[in-house]
Amino acid sequence: MVNRFGRNAPVANPPSFLFPSLMASPLYKIASSIADLHRVLRMPDEFNNAEEQRNILRRVALYRELCQRVRRSSTMTLIFGAIMLAVWSAVIPNGRQFSIFGTIFLCLAILEFGTGLLNRFWPSAEGVLLEGAVLVAFGSWNVARELMIWQGIIQGGQVQVLFLAFGVWWIFQGLQTCRSYFQLRVLFAQRPSAEHLRWFDDLLKEIRESDPRTDALALRLPTEPYISAKLLGENAFFLYPDGDVVILGREEVYLERDATKNPEKPIGYLILAGYPMRPFPLSQANWDNYVNWKGDEGLPVARPIGS
Question: CATH assignment of 20-33+194-294?
Answer without folding.
Answer: 2.30.29.30
